[in-house]
Amino acid sequence: MTRLSKWAGHGVKRTGWNLDPRAAFSGLALVSGLALMAAFYLALASQTAVLGRHLQEVEATRVVVVRENARLRDQIARTASVGQLRQRAVAAGFTTSSTVVFLPIDPTWFLDLGQGESAASFPGADGDSFPGAQGE
Q1: Distance CA 37, CA 29 (A)
Q2: C-alpha distances in angstroms, 40 versus 46, 50, 76, 104?
Q3: How far apart are CA 78 and CA 112, in angstroms?
Q4: Which of 50, 98, 113, 126 has the most CB atoms around its CB within 10 Å?
Q5: How many whole angstroms separate alpha carbon 44 and alpha carbon 56?
């Protein structure tokens, strides 16, 4: 032994057990494995907490949207009622008609329209009356 090692180790007592390098490596591997598992567990717990919070926010948004949809449906039902529509029509200047004229329509015209014809070929589009209309 060198003089320095004797001086540095003179106050250190030797214990009764000697650590085998194989056992030291096994212990280090065990501690490292446990630390790695703990890190993965903490990462998983953190991600679960973040997703849980996001789910709460989505649920709160869904509740707000459902409430808003119910309010809008109620508003539509109130404004689209027959009485409301009649009041708005009278306010806009519409009046009730004393006579109703029904115009006959050739059903084959709609089938022909899909084969390249335009809406300008609609009977009466040029200002003429419809063929077969009452009064002709």
Answers
A1: 12
A2: 10, 15, 53, 77
A3: 41
A4: 113
A5: 18
Lookup: tokens for 106: 């050739």
Q: Rounded to two decimals, what is the model's pTM?
A: 0.42
Quick: pLDDT tens for 38-81. Answer: 999 999 999 999 999 999 999 999 999 999 999 999 988 888 88
Cβ 130 vs Cβ 123: under 8 Å: yes
Joined together, the tokens standing for residue 2 give 């060198």
Minimum mean pLDDT among 14-28, 82-96, 107-121: which range? 107-121
Question: What is the amino acid identity at position 87?
Answer: Q
Q: How far apart are CA 114 and CA 109, in angstroms?
A: 9
Taking 70 as the threshold, does the pLDDT of residue 135 lie above it? no
Half-sphere exposure of 60 (CA within 13 A, CB side): 6
